[in-house]
Structures are given as C-alpha cells and as structure tokens.
Amino acid sequence: MSDMSDLRYVYAVCRPFEAPLQAELTGVAGSPPKLLHHGDLVAVVSAVPERDFAEEPLRAHLEDLDWLSDTARAHEKVIAALTTVTSPLPLRLATVFRDDSGVRTMIEAEHERLHTALERIAGRIEWGVKVYVDPEKTAPQGQSAAAEPTVKPATGRDYLRHKRAERQRQDTIWERAEHFARRLHEHLSRHARATRLHPPQNPALSRAPGRNVLNAAYLVDRSRSEEFVELVDRTKDEEPGLRVELTGPWAAYSFSSLDDYGQRPVEGADDRDDQGDRAAYDQGDPGAYEEQEDRR
Questions:
Q1: What angle do helix axes 100-109 and 111-121 make, rounded to 10 degrees?
Q2: Domain of 217?
Q3: How confident is the chain (296 residues) per 10-residue block, as mean pLDDT?
Q4: Is residue 125 a contact partner of residue 87, using CB atoms and an 8 Å limit?
Q5: Which DSSP helix (H) or strand (E) runs through 69?
Q6: Last residue of a domain, one of 109, 137, 172
Q7: Do 139 and 172 meet the contact criterion of CB atoms below 8 Å apart?
C-alpha cells in the first residue's frame, strides 16, 4: 500500500484504452503503474516516495547519472508497454505531482492541448534514422583514416601537397555524406506525417563510431511502418563508407512536447530540463529541431 506521503509520478496521458497493461509491469522506484481516469482522458501514474521526488532531493538526483539512467529506463519501460496497446503522449522525465488531485487539475488545465497532441500522434509511432560517416571505410585502401603517408615526404612542399590533398579528400567525403543525408531525409519525409531534425550527436557522448551527419525522427502511421522500414533498409548499402541506422519503433517522443502547440508549459508539473529523457533510450538530442508540417 502506498504511503500517504507518496507523490504521483506521471508517465503519459492517453485516450481510454481497453487492453490491460502487463500484470508484472513496474515503473519508477519499482512501483506498478496505474490508470487514473479523468473525463475522457487517462493519466498513467505510479506512487513514488517523497524522500526521492520532492523538489530538493529530485534536484540532487538529477545530477546523479546512475540514478538518472535507472529512472529513465524504468520510465521508458512503462512507455514501451503503453505503446503496444495505444498511442501514449509521453510526459517529460520526472513529471511529479503532489497527489491524484494535482494530476486531475493538470488534465483539466491542459485539456485542449492534450487532445490536440493526442490527435496528432493517434495511430502513429516514431522511427529514428541516423547517418554516419565511417572514417575507416572512406580512407584509401590499406590506410587508416588517421594514418600519415607511408612514404615520408622528401620536402616541405611535398608534405604540404599531401596535407592539401587529404583536406580535399575529406571535404569531398563530407560533401557527399551531407548530400546523401539530405536526399534520404527528403525521401523518408514523404512517407511520414511529420519529422524532427535533431542536432548531430556528439561522438564522445554517443560512443557511436563515425561522424553523425543525420539524426532525424519520423512520425509514421502504424499501418505504413513496415513500408517505412523497408525504405530505410534499401538505403543501407547505397553509399560506401556511410552507415545508416534505424531505431524504433518508439512512442512519439519527438512529437509530444506540449510546447509544440504554441502555449505555455504544463502548470504544476516539474519544469526542469529533460536531462536524459530520451538520451537513455536512443542517445538522441531532443533540443533544437526543425519540423515539417503534417502531411494529410
């Protein structure tokens, strides 16, 4: 039984759905998620201890990467379970209210925006596509991308000539990669309802080999997801030295910010930056993005 001092952690808001959640599903702090019905919407919540999720301890925890990673994985586990039975509107990591009444107040205050967002993602899921330049595969045959010439230049002029030729080769590689990424994004966008262009990943943080030249999210109808995956798969060997990665399916994380709908943030929710919100699942960057209009 929950202690009276427990707070309410909110994972997502959904339209009512009939399929039950997994019987053994647990979420943040090991608590099972519950459905909190209010009017024609449902919030998916669980009880979390005030000692960890009140304002001051939560602020401290958000500086603890291990705690943050564990919490993000538990949050994502609930969202992933919801995605199998409905199209949830995920809320930002560590959205916490004092009690059920606070959650209901939020739903009433944001009812119109919640409905608009849910309408947008209904029957749709998110796919992520990344393109990387693989330095080893774009280097001349038998030479590492970072290698110096096997024959030592005879003069300083030969050395400068070699460096200039290497710069030109690298410029050609990046130009080809960016052209391919732009063309791929335009092609995939024609098969998506909306898109997001996230900033390229920092390789030191993502630990993915190569330089990231495309980091995009696509909102796709469930009924067309198989077709979308096939489109991506057909591009994977188009350009030697370029690696195309597909991730998903996800809940519509990149398309679920209530701020997208031109109004104020949710009142009563924790308004901290979503540190690790999606990073723990896909190492994407939900910061700056560009958006293309829905295609009807």
A1: 80
A2: 124-292
A3: 73 94 92 95 96 93 93 96 94 94 96 94 96 68 50 65 63 82 96 95 77 95 96 89 94 83 35 34 30 35
A4: yes
A5: helix 65-83
A6: 109
A7: no
Return d(Cα 156, Cα 193) in angstroms, integer. 56
Do 84 and 17 share a structural domain? yes
- Find tokens 């590689």 and name the residue: 173
Full-model pTM: 0.74
Q: Give the list of residues 6+ apart from residue 290 with CB closer than 8 angstroms, or none.
A: 195, 196, 197
The reply to whether 118 falls in a domain is no
Strand 194-197, strand 211-221: pairing:
antiparallel
- Can you state the percent helix, strand and coil of the chain, rounding each to 5? 40, 20, 40
Instruction: Compute the distance between CA of residue 207 and CA of residue 215 in angstroms, rounded to an integer.
Output: 15
Q: Are residues 179 and 77 part of one domain? A: no
Residues 98 and 171 in one domain: no
Question: Within 13 Å and on the Cβ side, how many CA atoms surround 251?
Answer: 30
